[in-house]
Design a protein that fits this description.
Alpha/beta knot; seven-stranded parallel beta sheet; globular; Helicase, Ruva Protein, domain 3; alpha/beta
């Protein structure tokens, strides 16, 4: 028994070795995922003799070349996740400012969570999810993690936590596949009454919020003290939908107008 997972995008950021891209494609196809996004991959665009991209990637794909052919290449992470309403960053190391953390099984359950609409019908919590993997040697930067609502961490040997990027993709895709099987038949029947805000819409909100806080002199741009990062952490826990983001931005606009009138 199998089920196609078409609401999850795997995103690789600045992958150094093209072979890891091919191995990732293979791991995805094994578990019925097909949407691969590449952010500024290193060497990957160098064509082989047939003009089909880097030969090492296709060799490691081992039959999953359809995933490679359809992979989209972006210049930035923000572009790669702009239409996603849930973004999860994979990381093997702890951060100075912690993000809400999930293990692989919790991540899969969150992605395939089923709620109810106003009429009591089942609806999926998220329309499109991006799972983001960083560089082989350095992972994701804090600025890139700022674009994620959650961090997923694969429990491993405390004395040797490093996983090859394709192996990490395989672990997470396996959990997604197993959870999708448990929910088989439910996702396709669902309709989200109030879709969650996309990553791009969330970023516009954060830009608006930061601008307003500066106008209020609550935020000193010369000494921000990680305020915006902590506010991101707060709002990311909420899972804002499109209507909620519009309400919040409307409040921010009203505050700015009030400040302008008082001057």
């Amino acid at each position: 028994m199998s089920v196609k997972i078409d609401n999850v995008r795997i995103v690789l950021v600045e992958t150094n070795h093209p072979g890891n891209i091919g191995a990732t494609a293979r791991a995805m196809k094994n578990m019925t995922l097909s949407e691969l996004a590449l952010v500024s991959p290193k060497s990957y665009t160098e064509a082989d003799g047939e003009g089909k991209g880097h030969g090492k990637a296709y060799a490691r794909a081992s039959g999953a070349t359809d995933v490679l052919y359809s992979a989209q290449i972006y210049n930035s992470l923000a572009e790669a996740i702009a239409d996603c309403d849930l973004v999860i960053g994979a990381s093997a190391r702890l951060r100075a400012v912690t993000w809400p953390e999930l293990n692989p099984r919790e991540m899969a359950e969150k992605i395939f969570a089923i709620g109810q609409d106003a009429n009591g019908n089942p609806k999926p919590a998220y329309t499109k999810t991006a799972i983001v993997f960083g560089r082989e040697d350095a992972g994701l930067t804090n600025d890139e993690m700022d674009l994620c609502q959650f961090l997923v961490h694969i429990p491993a040997n405390a004395e040797y936590t490093s996983l090859n990027i394709a192996a990490a993709v395989q672990v997470l895709c396996y959990e997604l596949h197993m959870t999708a099987l448990l929910h088989q038949g439910q996702i396709s029947k669902a309709a989200n009454e109030h879709p969650l805000a996309s990553s791009q819409e969330i970023e516009y909100f954060y830009e608006h919020l930061e601008q307003t806080l500066v106008e209020l002199t609550f935020l000193n741009p010369d000494n921000p003290m990680q305020l915006m990062r902590r506010l991101r952490k707060l709002y990311n826990r909420c899972g804002l939908d499109k209507i909620e983001v519009n309400i919040l931005r409307g409040i921010l606009t009203a505050i700015s107008r009030g400040l302008a009138k008082s001057k």
